[in-house]
Amino acid sequence: MDKPEDETAIAQTVQRFVDSWNNHDAHAFALTFTEDCDFTNVGGTHAHGRDNVEKFHAPVFATVFKKSHQTAKLRSIRFLASDLAAVDVDWQMTGATFPDGRPRPERHGLLDWVMARQPDGSWLIQIIHNTDLTNMPAPPK
After folding, report:
1. Potential cystine with 29: which of 3, 20, 49, 76 (Cβ 3.0-4.6 Å)?
2. Per residue in 94-134, pLDDT tens?
3. How do beta strands 69-81 and 84-94 pair?
């Protein structure tokens, strides 16, 4: 069921997700999602649909995340079907601010995605839950 080309395509979406975040481009960011996606951020705020993901991110990319920089590492891919995968991505962020402009400390967390293969062979995020693990103890090594 899992093919190297699918793993490569998923990794490319992870990179597009991070690049669009770091460019603070809400439109490009939203294009990493399916039209009917469900997005839930670390605070539990939900947006349904690609257009709403873009509308949600545009103002935060212009304010609290304006100078943010995110890195990500693909942790795991589990193919649930030939066109559906559960994907975990570890992330780190610097440069974010609080709404009053004070700098936020470095953050890290986990993105839990359900991804769907598209007819052109690309993979897009259908469901996303973001977890901020900044204040959690580091896992044992």
Report:
1. 20
2. 999 999 999 999 999 999 999 999 999 999 999 999 999 98
3. antiparallel
pLDDT in tens, 42-54: 989 999 999 999 9
The residues with which 98 forms a beta bridge, in sequence order, are none
Would residue 65 count as lying in a domain?
Answer: yes
Local structure of residue 104 (DSSP, 8 states): P
Residue 138 within any structural domain of the chain: no
Supply the CATH number for residue 20's domain.
3.10.450.50
Helix ranges, 23-132 (H): 26-30, 50-61
- Please report whether residue 141 resides in a domain: no
Residue carrying structure tokens 């039209």: 35
Number of domains in the chain: 1
Quote the Cα angle for 117-19-55, to 5°: 80
In the chain, pLDDT over 90 holds for what percent of residues? 91
Determine the structural domain holding residue 115 and report its residue range: 4-132
Residue written as token pair 């953050």: 107
Full-model pTM:
0.92
Nearest to 111 by CA among 139, 136, 86: 86
Please check whether residue 139 lies inside any domain of the structure. no
